[in-house]
C-alpha cells in the first residue's frame, strides 16, 4: 500500500536535466547546487545521481560536511563560507571550498598558520545583489590580503551572483557581468557567475569561458530539478523534466447543497450542488497554505479545482466533473502533467519555495 502522502523522485529526470545544462553550457564546468536538501529532493540521492557534475555547491558548512561524510569526493563549495574559526576548521577537515565575501573571514584566515592542505577559496564580488560579497572598490585589496594568507590555496577563484537574471528585459544583469569581468580581468583564477536563469537566459556569461583556465563554472540549481526560473514558463519550455512529483489520495467524497461553505473561514461557497473530494495533503506536508481556490489538482489523472482553504492535513477539491471518483483514488499535487510552476502561480510564490517546503512526514519514494 502507498503511504498517504509521498514524493516520487525521478533521478533519471535529474540526470536528463544535467545533460540539458551541458547543452546550454558546453564549455563550462558544472557546480551542481544541492543546498537545502537538494531543494527538498534529498541531498544524498540527488548527489549520487549527479556523478557527471564537476562539483557541488551547498549553502552551509554542515551541508558540505554531511556530503563528505556520505562519501562524496567531488569538489564541494560552501556558498556562505564560514563565520568563525571553528567553521573554518570544519572546512579544512572536510576539504570544502569556501566563498570569501566579508572582511572578518579574511581576518580569521590571517591568523591561520601555513599547512599542507590549504583552503580553496572563491572570492566574491558584490555586483549589485547587495547580499554577500565585496564591493568593487574593496575587491582588489581583499584579493591581495587573501594572496598573503598562507592557509589559502592559489589561485584564488572569483565569483559573483545575479540579482535579476530571471528578468530578460532588465539590463542590470548586463551591468553585473561587465562589472565582474572588469574587476577580475587581471586575475588567473577560475570564474563562476551563472545560476539557472543566467545559464538559460544570458548566453554571454558562458561565451567568456576560458579554456586555458579549464573552463569556468556555472551553478545550476533549479533547472536540475526540472523547473523554469522564468515566470510564465515551465521546465518543459527549456527541455527540462520535473524531478519531483507530490502524491496523495482521496480519503472522502460527499455531496454539498447550494449555499454550503467549505473549510476554515468558509472561503468557498457552493454556487450549485457540489460533489466534494477530500485529499490527504495539507500545509503540514508542504502544500502551500496560500494556494487559492481554482488551483489545479490531478484526481485519477484528471484536472479538478481546489476549493476552500488548505488545512494542515487536508485539502478539498470540486469533483463535479469526476462523479465516479472514490476514496482511495490517486491524487497528484504537482509533477508530471502538472508543473509545480503552475501551482506556485496559484499560491503567489515561486517553485523554489514549494520544492523546499516538503516536510518530514512526506515519504520519499
Ligand atoms: C542557490 C544559488 C544558486 C543556484 O540558483 P538557481 O536559481 O537555483 O539556479 C547559484 N548560486 C548561488 C550563490 C546560490 O545561492
Automatic annotation (TrEMBL):
Under SMART domains, the record lists: Ala_racemase_C (SM01005)
- Keyword Lyase attached: no
What EC number(s) would the UniProt record show?
5.1.1.1
Q: Which residues bind substrate?
A: 131, 312
Any single GO BP term? D-alanine biosynthetic process
> Annotated pathway, please?
Amino-acid biosynthesis; D-alanine biosynthesis; D-alanine from L-alanine: step 1/1
Q: Which segments constitute the Alanine racemase C-terminal domain? A: 243-365
Its keywords, alphabetically, are:
Isomerase, Pyridoxal phosphate
What this protein is reported to do is described as:
Catalyzes the interconversion of L-alanine and D-alanine. May also act on other amino acids.
Family statement: Belongs to the alanine racemase family.
User: Could you identify this protein by its name?
Assistant: Alanine racemase
Organism of origin is: Methylomonas koyamae
Amino acid at each position: 500500500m502507498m503511504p498517504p502522502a509521498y514524493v516520487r523522485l525521478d533521478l533519471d529526470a535529474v540526470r536528463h536535466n544535467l545533460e540539458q545544462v551541458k547543452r546550454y553550457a558546453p564549455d563550462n564546468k558544472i557546480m551542481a547546487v544541492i543546498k537545502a536538501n537538494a531543494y527538498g529532493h534529498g541531498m544524498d540521492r540527488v548527489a549520487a545521481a549527479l556523478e557527471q557534475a564537476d562539483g557541488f555547491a551547498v549553502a552551509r558548512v554542515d551541508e558540505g560536511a554531511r556530503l563528505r561524510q556520505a562519501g562524496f569526493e567531488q569538489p564541494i563549495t560552501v556558498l556562505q563560507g564560514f563565520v568563525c574559526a571553528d567553521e573554518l576548521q570544519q572546512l579544512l577537515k572536510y576539504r570544502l571550498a569556501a566563498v570569501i565575501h566579508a572582511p572578518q573571514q579574511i581576518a580569521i584566515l590571517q591568523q591561520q598558520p601555513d599547512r599542507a592542505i590549504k583552503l580553496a577559496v572563491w572570492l566574491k564580488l558584490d555586483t549589485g545583489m547587495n547580499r554577500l560579497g565585496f564591493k568593487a572598490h574593496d575587491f582588489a585589496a581583499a584579493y591581495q590580503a587573501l594572496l598573503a594568507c598562507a592557509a589559502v590555496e592559489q589561485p584564488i577563484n572569483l565569483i559573483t551572483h545575479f540579482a535579476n537574471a530571471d528578468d530578460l528585459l532588465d539590463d542590470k544583469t548586463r551591468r553585473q557581468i561587465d562589472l565582474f569581468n572588469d574587476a577580475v580581468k587581471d586575475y588567473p583564477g577560475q570564474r563562476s557567475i551563472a545560476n539557472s536563469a543566467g545559464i538559460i537566459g544570458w548566453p554571454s556569461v558562458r561565451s567568456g569561458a576560458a579554456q586555458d583556465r579549464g573552463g569556468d563554472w556555472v551553478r545550476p540549481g533549479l533547472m536540475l530539478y526540472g523547473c523554469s526560473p522564468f515566470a510564465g514558463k515551465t521546465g518543459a519550455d527549456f527541455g527540462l523534466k520535473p524531478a519531483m512529483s507530490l502524491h496523495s489520495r482521496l480519503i472522502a467524497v460527499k455531496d454539498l447543497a447550494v449555499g454550503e461553505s467549505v473549510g476554515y473561514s468558509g472561503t468557498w461557497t457552493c454556487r450549485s450542488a457540489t460533489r466534494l473530494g477530500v485529499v490527504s495533503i495539507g500545509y503540514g506536508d508542504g502544500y502551500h497554505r496560500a494556494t487559492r481556490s481554482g488551483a489545479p489538482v490531478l484526481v485519477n489523472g484528471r484536472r479538478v479545482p481546489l476549493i476552500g482553504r488548505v488545512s494542515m492535513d487536508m485539502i478539498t477539491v470540486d469533483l463535479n466533473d469526476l462523479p465516479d471518483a472514490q476514496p482511495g483514488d490517486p491524487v497528484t499535487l504537482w509533477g508530471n502533467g502538472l508543473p509545480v510552476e503552475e501551482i506556485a502561480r496559484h499560491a503567489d510564490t515561486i517553485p523554489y519555495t514549494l520544492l523546499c517546503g516538503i516536510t518530514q512526514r512526506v515519504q520519499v519514494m
